[in-house]
Each structure stands twice: as C-alpha cells, then as structure tokens.
C-alpha cells in the first residue's frame, strides 16, 4: 500500500502544492480510502472501512486528518497535527471554504476539477442553470468565466448559504446570481419560469433518500432538460454511481435528450480514475441539434 500511495503522491508533486487536490483515489483500486490534500500542510484521509490508520504516519504532512465514513455519524479526528472546523482552500487558483464539521461531504468535490476549468472557459455571456448546486462551486467558476446570469438550485438552505459565501470569497458580484431553495423532484415550474438556459449543469447525487435515486429519477429528469434549453443550448450531465456504467448513461441520455446529440466526454483526471477513465465519475456534454432552414 505504502508504495502505491508514495508513487501517486510523487506524481502530484509537480503540480501546485498549495492547491486542493485528490492525491489518491483508493476505492476503485480496492484500497478503501481516499486521500485529499487541502493545502501544503494538511491532508484528509477518508476511510470507507476500518483500517490501520497508523500506516499513514509515513506521509510527510504536518496535519493528517482522518474521516471515518463507515461510522454513523462520521468520525473526524487528527492522526497528527491540528484540526480546524473549516479551511479556505485554493482550487485552480480560486478560493473555497471547506468544512470538516462532521458532515460526510466537505463542500468541494476534487473529481470535478477538469469540468470546472471547462465551465470557466465556456460560460462567457451565458445564462446558466446549476441543478443540485450544493455549495455552488460550479457557479463560482461560471461567474468568473463571465456568465451573464446563473440560477443555483438545491433543496438544502445551508448548502446555498455556503455557496453564497464561496462567491463572496472570490469578490464576485451577486447581482445576477440566484440561489433557489427548491426540491427539483417536486416541481419543474420554477425552472421553466427562469429559463431558457444556454448551459445546464445536471449533477445529482447517486442516491439521497426520497429526494433522488439515480435508478428511478435520472432518466426521467433528463427527459425534461431539452425544453429548458435555448436553441443552441448545451447540457452537462454527471453521474457518480459505480453501479451504473458509462454505456448505460449513454443509453439513458440518447433515449431522453430529445433532439440533442452527444458532443464529448469530460475527463476527471487520472488521480480519480476508478476502473478506468470511463467508469469513474461520468461527465458528458450534450448539445441541441441546430436546425438550418434550407
Ligand atoms: C452530489 S451533491 C451535488 C454536487 C455539486 N454539483 C457540486 O459539484 O458541488 C448533491 C446535492 O443535491 C441536492 N439534492 C438532492 N436531491 C435534490 C432534489 N430533489 N432537489 C434539489 N436538490 C437536491 C443535495 O441537497 C446536495 O446538495
């Protein structure tokens, strides 16, 4: 185990060492933990099973924090150094606040780093719908990329408040950025009224109680996206379930995204590969078919 982790860390060392980054993705390689670097002093090790945590002491970071995901509620403690409730981290040079306060997710997903770069490059002048926005990190990237209007939708008020704070941290003017506390499963009226959108980001959880289950809700919700898009609009669809294959997602999208075509896949970066690039978190771009009047 030590050797695999050491190699992975060495391969990340060339990159900006202050940045928030996944260093080791263990789940897909049969080692039941992930390692994320919060900054150059602090790493977070998320364990999905009971393991000998002392074996991580060889890691050369002043602060090593352990989160046990297999306990309920999640335990969080230091193996070495100090633990704070929250940290301001840098991702692609942009600031975000992450929280080590006992919640399962800390407020930022490292596996989406390449998608976020794409959003910053592609959002200039666009009206964006960010569905399942959580702490609105996608919105921060779109705003910095020059989006003209952004609607963040999430049913969790506390996540949206954290989202506002992430924008403020980056001195973003909130004038055309909206934060809607709304359960997408209950009604589509709000989304229809606020549309149409040039860009939709659809990044639901794989399963979250009655609020969302990929197996029963994903395809159904996808089928509603085309009517929310402008004539040349694009949808970015994400799926983070190891139980649903890349091919299955392709079939669902082809059957549901009426009058739209597959444009391309977005990578998650080798540090997040599961059983290969396609079977990790899946991210696809679909675009509206453009009609030419002959
Ligand atoms: C995996 S997170 C989304 C991650 C986010 N796109 C990001 O990259 O930071 C899932 C989010 O979906 C929200 N959610 C789940 N079901 C929902 C529903 N039916 N309506 C609105 N939000 C929902 C949760 O509150 C949570 O914040």
Radius of gyration based on Cα positions: 19 Å
> What is the chain-wise order of helices and strands?
HEEEEEEEHEHEHEHEEEHEHEE
Output the CATH topology of the largest domain: Rossmann fold
The main pleated sheet reads as:
7 strands, mixed
- What structural class do helix, strand and pairing data support? alpha/beta
Give an overview of the whole structure.
The longest helix has 13 residues, at 157-169. This protein has two domains: 2-99, RNA methyltransferase domain (HRMD) like (Transcription Regulator spoIIAA, 2-Layer Sandwich); 110-288, Rossmann fold. The termini are far apart. The protein contains seven helices and 16 strands. The mean pLDDT is 92. The relative contact order is 0.11. The strands form four sheets. Strands 10-9-8-11-14-16-15 form a seven-stranded mixed sheet, sandwiched between helices. Strands 1-2-3-4-5 form a five-stranded mixed sheet, covered by helices on one side. It has 294 residues and is α/β, with parallel strands linked by helices. It is globular. The site of S-adenosylmethionine has 22 residues, from helix 3 and strand 9.
């Amino acid at each position: 185990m030590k050797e695999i982790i050491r190699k992975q860390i060495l391969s990340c060392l060339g990159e900006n060492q202050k940045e928030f980054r996944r260093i080791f993705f263990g789940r897909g390689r049969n080692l039941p933990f992930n390692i994320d670097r919060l900054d150059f002093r602090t790493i977070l090790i998320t364990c999905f099973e009971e393991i000998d945590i002392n074996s991580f002491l060889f890691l050369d970071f002043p602060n090593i924090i352990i989160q046990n995901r297999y306990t309920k509620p999640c335990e969080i403690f230091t193996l070495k150094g100090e633990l704070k409730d929250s940290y301001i981290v840098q991702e692609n040079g942009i600031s975000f606040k992450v929280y080590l306060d006992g919640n399962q997710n800390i407020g930022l997903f490292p596996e989406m780093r390449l998608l976020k770069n794409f959003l910053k490059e592609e959002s200039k002048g666009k009206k964006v719908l960010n569905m399942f926005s959580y702490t609105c990190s996608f919105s921060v990237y779109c705003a910095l990329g020059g989006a003209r209007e952004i609607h963040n939708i999430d049913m969790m008020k506390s996540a949206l408040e954290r989202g506002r704070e992430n924008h403020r941290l980056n001195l973003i003017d909130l004038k055309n950025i909206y934060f809607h506390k709304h359960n997408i499963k209950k009604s589509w009226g709000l989304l229809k009224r606020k549309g149409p959108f040039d860009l939709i980001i659809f990044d639901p959880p794989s399963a979250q109680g009655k609020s969302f289950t990929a197996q029963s809700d994903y395809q159904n919700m996808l089928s509603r996206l085309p009517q929310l898009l402008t004539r040349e609009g694009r949808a970015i669809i994400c799926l983070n379930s190891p139980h649903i294959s890349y091919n299955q997602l392709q079939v669902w999208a082809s059957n549901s995204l009426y009058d739209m075509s597959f444009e391309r896949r977005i990578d998650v970066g080798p540090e997040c590969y599961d059983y290969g690039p396609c079977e990790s978190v899946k991210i696809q771009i679909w675009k509206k078919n453009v009609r030419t009047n002959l």
